[in-house]
Structure formats: C-alpha cells, structure tokens
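Figure 2 data, in text form.
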Amino acid sequence: MTVKIAPSILSADIMNLERDVRAADQAGADVFHIDMMDGNFVPNMSFSPSVVEGMRRVTDKPLDIHMMMENPDAYVKPVIDAGANTVLIHAESTQHIYRSIELVKSLGAKAGVVINPGTPLETVKELFPVIDRILVMTVNPGFGGQKFIPGMTKKIQRLDQLRQTAADDNFDIEVDGGINDETIVQCAKAGADIFVAGSYLFNGQEGLKDRIDGLRSMAFDAER
C-alpha cells in the first residue's frame, strides 16, 4: 500500500498560513487536508474556496477538501474551480450522497465519502464501486486537537476487509482525527492509506520534516 501524510491546515497558524503551507510542502507533505465548516453541520467555522485558491498558488501538492457542511453540493464547483483535487462529503450531510459523488466526478475531481464515528459502514457500502476514497473520522468532527477514539481501529479494519473482498472496490482509506506517532501505527496495521495529522505536526517541538518523515516511516513499518 501507499502511505500518504496529509497535514491538516486547521492546526496551522492562521496568521502565517502561507508560511506553514510552504514549510509543510518542503518537509515532504503528500497531500494537504483543508476543512470547510459552516457552523451548522458542525459547531465550528473554517476555510472557504478562496483559501483553496490561495493554497493552489503556493503548492502543487494535491488539495483534499473535507466538507463539513449542510448543502455541500453548492460548494462543489467553487472548490474544484479553485484547485481542489479531491472533494470529501459527509454521508450524514445530505440525503442524496450518490448524486453528490456524481457531481464531483462530473467536474473532474476525485470524490470521497466521509463517515462519522457513529455511522455504520453499511450506510455507504453501495458507494464503494464509484468512490475514490473513504475518510473514516476517528474523532467527532468539528475541532482539531481531539483524542483518537480507540474503537475506530476495528472499523478501519472491517472497511479494509470489505475492500479486499470486492474486485471493483478500489478506493483509498483515509483517517482523520488524533493521528500521532502512536495512533498512526494502529491505523496503518488496520489498513489505512492516507493519514491526516494536524496538531501533532504543527504544534510539535521537532521540525515538520522530522515529524512527517517519522509518521511515514511508522506507517510503512506497521503495514509490513
């Protein structure tokens, strides 16, 4: 499997966002994870399509847009036009998740579905053949710096088992929430491919490169 480390800019210094993005890019980030929150679907507000556009100007790395909002379809085209590579939509945020996935793909981006800690995998199983990625939330969405929910490891493992049993289910498994030097090992062993890390990367004492390289190495070793 391919290990990818995705710094979450929610934990970067908002007053020095360009500096932190450039630093993470140079330190070896594989993907940038951008949370868009509307204050309704989750009790917090964050970035807009204009931030995506600004980041596109300072990095060539893929931009991974995590929509934590009601009516996500209204923002799909603006974020893709701004430079998004992947759009991730919560299964819980719309009654028509299949239509939302089709919309993303029709505009030329990769499409993914997100499931909260309490959402069963069966809720999105019918989407497996048409999505590029599933993001498993390992904390309750809305805020950075939360602790990893231990029971999510088994959920990731079940998802990986389902992926392996169907030839046409070729999606990546991404994890988001509480990822650090301990939890990344658990998630990698369970079958995850992409690891979103925020506080651990941007609030750490060591340099970004050491932390990104360290997480990647731990994940690789755990998958062997």
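Caption note: The helical segments are 17-26, 49-58, 73-82, 97-106, 152-165, 183-190, 199-202, 208-223.
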